UniProtKB/TrEMBL annotation:
Keyword Transport recorded: yes
Zinc-finger is among the record's keywords: no
GO biological process assignments: electron transport chain
Principal EC category: translocase
Upper taxonomic lineage: Bacteria, Pseudomonadati, Pseudomonadota, Gammaproteobacteria, Chromatiales
Organism: Sedimenticola thiotaurini
Record's protein name: Ion-translocating oxidoreductase complex subunit E
Transmembrane segments: 40-62, 74-97, 103-119, 131-154, 174-198
Keywords: Cell inner membrane, Cell membrane, Electron transport, Membrane, Translocase, Transmembrane, Transmembrane helix, Transport
Gene: rnfE
Location(s) in or outside the cell: Cell inner membrane; Endomembrane system
Record note on quaternary structure: The complex is composed of six subunits: RnfA, RnfB, RnfC, RnfD, RnfE and RnfG.
Stored InterPro entries: NqrDE/RnfAE, RnfE
A Pfam family of this chain: Rnf-Nqr
Protein role: Part of a membrane-bound complex that couples electron transfer with translocation of ions across the membrane.
Amino acid sequence: MSTEKDLDAYQEFIKGIWRDNPVFVQVLGMCPMLAVTNSAVNAVVMGGATLFVLVGSSFLVAAMKHLIPKQVRISLYVIIIATFVTVADYTLLALLPKVHKELGAFIPLIVANCMILGRQEAFASRHSVRYAVMDALGMSGGFLLALLALGGVREILGSGSLFNVDLFGDGFEPWVIMILPPGGFLTLGLILLFFNWFTVRRRAFLQRVAALDAEEG
């Protein structure tokens, strides 16, 4: 029984990384996805702040779900989320003031991220603390990986660096468009195209394997 529970918890985590990725599959959180991913550093910090808020709020909502009246649950979810966002905002302001300035209003706007409120209503309020935290880790981890993928590509092509480390030397001519809004849309579109292509190919491969197994059986 313990092994089955461990497997279920793992599945709750891994679904957010790949099968139900909030960006590549559910297409959520597009505003910060396009706005702050002009560098890998900004992407990681934004993803880390979102992870902190989602995991913390999911933990509290799951732990207090029997104490929250249904009539005011959404309001309380927003208050809980806003509390963690405030902690993240002031922590970044104290520790990373330069990055905090670059991210601007997008840290406070985590409160309005539909992915976070959606996970409280759809999952954390209906499951145990353990599963709620694993779901939050998976979803926020998938969001962070998506931000990093977009931010890394845009920084490499748009600035010739990665995490502010120069990669190509003085001879490289940066693609300035990549660190501008059109570059964000273009890069995201190409990544979504690749992700969907890979998903379709993987599904077709699994179907062929299942058909071969059925024939042999």
